[in-house]
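YM 10:42: GTPase HflX sequence, as discussed on the call
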Amino acid sequence: MFERPGRGERAVLVHVTFRRQSEQADLQELGELAFAAGVTTVAKITTQRDKPDPKHYIGQGKLAEILDAVSLHEAEVVIFNHELSPSQERNVERFVKCRVLSRTGLILDIFAQRARTFEGKLQVELAQLEHLSTRLVRGWTHLERQKGGIGLRGPGETQLETDRRLIRDRIMAIQKRLDKVRQQRGQSRHARTRAEIPTIALVGYTNAGKSTLFNALTGAHVFVANQLFATLDPTLRAIELTGIGKVVLADTVGFIRQLPHTLVDAFRATLEETSQAHLLLHVVDAHDEKFEEHMHEVNQVLADIGANDVSQLTVFNKADLLVGQGFQSGDCERDKDGKITKIWVSAQTKEGLDLLREALQGRLSIETIEGSVYLAPEQGQLRSQLFALQAVLEEKDLSEGGWKIKIKTTKYHWEKLCQQYAGLASVFQGKDKKRG
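YM 10:58: structure's back
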């Protein structure tokens, strides 16, 4: 392995355009990722191919060009905007005589720098170990021989095998800890469900302005920066919405094109907040020329984590930068029922946020039950429970005994009462409604 210096490394970026592929990697995005990792880009090398070279990913001519750039600029790392196999990374490293990183390795490095909470650090370490486990041979080729000889006879395990076993054990230990985190998050979600507190998760492409919007809605002070993956650790805050009450808002990690599967798996405990939310605020950078592609990428990741069926409200952020483009802060689109489906806001200037809160109220309408029940004299316990739930609107004593009670309660509590008291549904006269 090569010595790995800290921040401020000089890097050569390599980008390949494949003629037969419809979806291409983005060189500008690679530059932004490198900047977010604290890397100084000294050269960019591009090329076109029909398919990757199995040995070096690129051709010999471009390899020589990279070597010249590394020597000229004294670069310490070469970063590919693609996924290289372990053998391709090793082969290119031997040729250019410096460290080589794939796109996944770069993103993992950014995540390692940004993790602050204990849970976030565990998730990043898990992703790094799973990525590293296939690349261990790079560091241990000189030790790949069995222990043996007089006084050295042992279990016959190579250093490489020992390291793989240690990594495997560490991965299992981290997974057990993250399982506990998942259980704790599940208990918290269950408690919010029982208390009928809706959860709204902010999702979107990285650097779309989710954290700025989160701060504007909650009054929090989550770290904000004009960088990819400025937010890594999830943050939850409670806000009050008129007609709804308390709502939990969750700020989540941003998505990106070709988000590494190791990261998706490692962050599953965190991403479950997204899949279990009542509503997703899909935050889009309206000023970005590629916002439609980014929306597609986000929806693809949501499908991967099982959150594609969760209701979405699309929030086009940075609308203050849309000068003469047909939309401005406060504009919206509604469906046939009058509910807002798309809204244009500026989290920076807070324009359009009042309309956004109105949209949230409409989208988080809670199902309610309203009507009358006839209770016999012996059903006093049920009567007491209805009062305890503050569900009684009006009560009338019946001449034959018992009560006629006009009630209004949530569908959740009504279904619980019907399970507890057999025959309750048969004495109910009323209908379902929506509140919000």
